[in-house]
Write a structure and sequence with these properties.
By secondary structure, this protein is α/β, with parallel strands linked by helices. The chain has two domains: 62 residues, Phospho-2-dehydro-3-deoxyheptonate aldolase, domain 1 (Alpha-Beta Plaits); 251 residues, Aldolase class I (TIM Barrel). 35% of the residues lie in helices and 18% in strands. The chain has an eight-stranded parallel barrel with strand order 7-8-9-10-11-12-13-14, surrounded by six helices. A four-stranded antiparallel sheet has the order 2-3-1-4. Strand 7, helix 3 and strand 8 form a beta-alpha-beta unit. Helix 6 crosses helix 7 and helix 10 packs parallel to helix 11. It binds phosphoenolpyruvate and manganese (II) ion (MN). The site of manganese (II) ion (MN) has 5 residues, from loops.
Length: 337
């Protein structure tokens, strides 16, 4: 449930209500805005009488949340969450463009890609140092050496960096180097990993699982939020369907739907979402048109030689055109009608 406090409530009243709930075994998440204080209360329903709670000094009303996700819901937080990353913001209405190779393959190659996406107008740089590959015999990523190359690319370009973490034991190492930690589709329901990421002071980019419903995805976000990290960014990356012409089916209807259900920023990855280079630009534009807060696109200096995901990677020139079109569409989408 959500406890909405009265306007002008004192800190002492807030503390008393919080202490009361915690003594009853609830966990309380405070959201203090300029005008309003709201408490997200997590625990077994029926444990407390909402009418009694509503009568406590300073409480305006008690709103039950029917959805299974609480902290991620719009009932808990009406305003869009805006996440600062370096000197940029994700979720403030600006379309954040994250681009870079699927994997970090080596220093020269990655720095070249980083420079190219920066010149083309990217806001942030992506690259995998730990790669979740279907085959254990495929390239698994450069590990910490890859993270060091990423950090060098950030120094060179000024772009914040995003990379995937695969297990709990690598979290502190990855957090030391990068600005956003990605949870890949294959780990969306790795609840132990999600809980640990809730203790980290870094934004978490949570990709949708390959066969996850929107509700399961929001419940995964809830694990991170509930463990103390409010900086969650959702990323639609396609789901598995019977269709074989595309690698996955990019579910763009998830974007406006999520905008109703949650206050969290929503990005779209049209590269993994389609698996086909020629579909990346149209689906990026569609993502912006339906209200995404950004896109994540794979770009490689020479996709034919890429060690992973070459067929869905754009050459820098094509990415530059895509970025120009996205900016154009972003301006149009801000017009009042
Ligand atoms: C990636 O972005 O590098 C990746 C592996 O994506 P996904 O988890 O969506 O497959
Ligand atoms: Mn990839």
């Amino acid at each position: 449930m959500v406890v909405v406090m009265q306007k002008g409530v004192s800190q002492e009243q807030i503390k008393k209500v919080q202490a009361h709930l915690e003594a009853e075994g609830f966990s309380v998440h405070l959201s203090q805005g300029v005008n309003r204080t709201i408490m997200g209360v997590i625990g077994e329903p029926g444990q407390i009488d909402p009418q009694m709670l509503a009568s406590l000094p300073g409480v305006e009303k008690v709103v039950p949340i029917m959805q299974p996700f609480k902290l991620a819901s719009r009932d808990f937080k009406h305003h869009n969450t805006v996440i600062p990353v370096g000197d940029q913001l994700i979720g403030d209405g600006h379309v954040c463009i994250i681009a870079g190779p699927c994997a970090i393959e080596g220093r020269e190659n990655f720095l070249q890609a980083a420079q190219a996406v920066k010149e083309a107008g990217a806001d942030m740089l992506r690259g995998g140092a730990f790669k979740p590959r279907t085959s254990p015999y495929s390239f698994q990523g450069l590990g910490e050496q890859g993270l060091k190359i990423m950090a060098e690319a950030r120094d060179l370009t000024g772009l914040p960096i995003v990379t995937e973490v695969m297990d709990q034991k690598s979290i502190s190492m990855v957090a030391e180097y990068v600005d956003i930690i990605q949870v890949g589709a294959r780990n969306m329901q790795n609840y132990f990993l999600l809980r640990e990421l809730g203790k980290v002071d870094k934004p978490i980019l949570l990709k949708r699982g390959m066969a996850a419903t929107i509700e399961e995805w929001l419940m995964a976000a809830e694990y991170i939020l509930g463990s103390g990290n409010p900086q969650v960014i959702l990323c639609e990356r396609g789901i598995r369907t019977f269709e074989t012409y595309t690698r996955n089916t990019l579910d763009l209807s998830a974007v406006p739907l999520l905008k109703q259900l949650t206050h969290l920023p929503v990005l779209v990855d049209p590269s993994h979402g389609t698996g086909k280079r020629e579909l990346v630009e149209p689906m990026s534009l569609a993502a912006v048109a339906c209200g995404a807060d950004g896109i994540m696109v794979e770009v490689h200096p020479d996709p034919a030689k890429a060690w992973s995901d070459g067929p869905q990677s754009l050459v820098p020139e094509d990415f530059a055109r895509l970025a120009r079109k996205v900016r154009h569409l972003e301006r149009l989408s801000k017009l009042e009608y």
